[in-house]
Write a structure and sequence with these properties.
Elements (H helix, E strand, L loop, with lengths): L1 H32 L9 H5 L2 H9 L4 H12 L2 E5 L2 E4 L5 H4 L10 H4 L14 H11 L5 H6 L1 H21 L5 H18 L13 H17 L6 H7 L2 H7 L8 H14 L4 H7 L4 H6 L11 H32 L1 H11 L13 H5 L2 H17 L6 E3 L2
Antiparallel strand pairs: 1-2, 2-3
Length: 389
């Protein structure tokens, strides 16, 4: 009888002992045997991602600024979690953002929006390369030149809305205005449906609040188990709101593109191109003879479209907003840009210059390149990270 009790007690303690031994072994490996153990940084960050998740999920995405302080303490190359380094050196920018080599995506980043069918949610290097190659041709210079009438007409709509705000004396939220502009252009290029966000009240303020909440839910999901977001996505909205108030808006990207993608699938013919007046990304993908059938399934296309529309609007608006602020805050640079623009636009009645003309303006090109790389570099702590193990 005593032996049976002892065996039962041992059976209960065995998982606890095994877990403790595993944890101790993992801690020892991360602190002393890992290839990253020789790099400086907080020991707690080397032990667990909970250090990073505290600043991101609890302290409202403050890890970027904490990393800056850590660099001041430890130097230009630091360890910020068990698997990654962060490098504070502009000379490493091209190295860290190189397309050379074979790199699988960090699973912590890939699963955060529960869209494994999209390029941004693809972990495997070879599959990501195939998916990226399918859409990359649509962003060549020649394709963008062909889209110039769509871009210009959307700029005209944006300027008209700005004029309305100027005449009324109301304050203008440029970030939201730029988001609407970018999202309308991207949606038109993707589906030949702009969405008309520029025409909605307050530059679609309610729409962007939903997007922001959905983005927050996804960012927090990086630090939760991989099954969390698929389960949350499949739950009714009231359950999502109970678990995480921001999570009820999580599917806003997929909801926005679900209708356009399904309508696109019903237009698998050349007549669609004739009516749209320009080629569209997802009409081409759905009709692609190169992609295998599984890559053209509706759910995958919706996930790819959601990621593309969401990222296209967000990143473009960040760059435009930051550039506008930089010019207003530096009148000398604004004056120099205006002088350069007057060489091709002497006055407000001058014809609108083409994209090719604008690309030949050296100061404008310099402003764009410098601002874009700086803003994109600061938009996420991931940019300076280098995952080694």
């Amino acid at each position: 009888m005593l032996g049976a009790v002892q065996f039962g007690l041992f059976s209960l303690l065995l998982p606890v002992i095994a877990t403790a031994l595993y944890g101790a072994g993992l801690a020892f490996y991360r602190l002393f045997l890992s290839p990253l153990s020789k790099f400086p940084g907080p020991k707690l960050a080397a032990l667990t991602r909970k250090y990073e998740s505290y600043y991101e999920a609890v302290q409202n995405y403050e890890y970027l600024w904490k990393i800056k302080k850590l660099h001041q303490k430890y130097g230009p190359i630091i360890r910020i979690n068990p698997h990654e380094l962060h490098i504070d050196d502009p000379d490493f920018f091209d190295k860290l953002n190189s397309f050379q080599g074979k790199w699988d995506k960090d699973p912590y980043t890939a699963h955060q929006f529960a869209n494994p069918g999209s390029s941004v949610g693809t972990i495997d290097h070879d599959l990501h390369r195939k998916r990226r190659a399918a859409v990359l041709p649509f962003f060549s210079k020649q394709k963008i030149y062909a889209l110039e009438p769509v871009i210009q007409s959307t700029i005209d709509r944006l300027c008209n809305k700005m004029e309305e705000y100027i005449k009324s004396g109301r304050p203008l939220n440029l970030r939201n205005a730029y988001k609407c502009f970018a999202a309308d252009v991207v949606a038109e290029y993707c589906f030949a449906e702009s969405g008309g966000l520029l025409e909605k009240p307050d530059f679609s303020l309610a729409h962007w609040k939903e997007h922001q909440q959905g983005l927050k839910a996804g960012l927090r999901a990086r630090y939760l188990p991989t099954w969390y977001m698929p389960v949350v996505r499949g739950a009714p909205e009231w359950i999502r709101a109970t678990v995480d108030p921001a999570a009820k808006h999580f599917e806003v990207w997929h909801r926005d593109v679900d209708g356009p993608v399904r309508r696109m699938e019903d237009k698998k013919n050349e007549d669609f191109f004739e009516k749209a007046g320009h080629r569209t990304i997802f009409h081409e993908l759905i009709n692609s003879e190169i992609l295998p059938p599984q890559e053209k399934q509706t759910i995958r296309v919706i996930q790819e479209a959601g990621a593309m529309v969401g990222a296209g609007g967000e990143s473009t608006s960040q760059v435009l907003t930051a550039l506008t602020f930089a010019l207003v805050a530096n009148p000398d640079k604004l004056k120099k840009l205006r002088e350069e623009l007057r060489t091709i636009m002497p006055d407000s009645n001058s014809p609108m210059p083409s994209l090719k003309q604008l690309e030949k303006l050296p100061y404008l090109e310099k402003l764009h390149d410098t601002n874009a790389s700086h803003v994109i570099g600061l938009s996420t702590t991931k940019t300076g990270k280098f995952r080694l193990v």
